[in-house]
Amino acid sequence: MLLTLVNVFIEPVLLIFKTNKMMNDFFNNKLGLLKFILLSIAFGSFFVSEGYATTKSVAITQQEKTVKGKVTDDNDEPLIGVSVRVAGTSAGTVTDSDGMFQLNVAGSDVLEFSYVGYKTVKVTVGNKPFLSVILKEDQEILDEIVVVGYGTKRKGSIAAAVTTIGTEDIARTTSSTVSGALVGKIAGITTRQKSGQPGSGTSIQIRNMGTPLFVIDGIIKDEAQFNNLDVNDIENISILKDGAAAIYGVKAANGVVLVTTKNGSKNQKAAVTLDFNYSWQSWTSYPRMLNAYEWQYANYMKEANLGTLSVSPDVARAELEKWRTGYYNPETGEDYRGFDWRDNYVSNAAPQSYIHANLSGGGNKTTYYLSISNIDQDAVFKDYNFQRTNIQSNFNIDISEKLKLGFRLNGRLENRTNPALPGSDDYANARQAVFNLPPIYRPYANDNPNYLNNVPGASGLNLAALTIDNAGKSDNNTTVVQIDWDMEWKTPIKGLTGKGIFSYWTSQNKVNNLEKGWKEYTYDRAADEYIVAYDKSAANETWMERFDTTIKEFSGQFLLNYDNMFGKHHVTGVGGFEFTKRDYHSLNVQQHPVENEFIDLISTNDNNLVSENKAITSTASWVFRAGYDYENRYILDLSARYDGSWKFPKGNRWGFFPSVSAAWRISEENFFKNSSVSSWFSNLKLRASYGMMGDDNLGGLYPDFAYLSGYTYYKGQSLMPDDPFSSVKSKKVIGSAPKGIPVTTISWMKIKLMNVGIDFGFFDNRLTGEFDLFKRMRDGIPGTPSDIMFPLETGLSALPENMNSDMTVGFDAFVKWNDKVGDLKYSVGANITFARQKNGKRHGEIFGNAWDKYRWAQSNRWSNVVLNTDQGNAGGVWMWEVIGRFETQEQIDSYPVDQDGQNNATVRPGDVILRDVNGDGIINDFDERPQAYASADWPWDSSTSNKNPLISMGINLGFEWKGVDVAADFAGGFKNTFVADWDLKWGVTRSVNGYYYNNIDVWRHEDIFDPKSPWIPGKFPALRGQESHSGRWWNSFYTREVNYLRLRNLVVGYSLPKNWIRKVGMEQCRIYFQGTNLFCLSSLHDYGFDPEISTVNGQDYPQHKVLTLGVNVKF
Question: What are the CA-CA distances from residue 476 to residues 387, 413, 546, 872, 903 (Å)?
Answer without folding.
Answer: 10, 11, 10, 39, 57
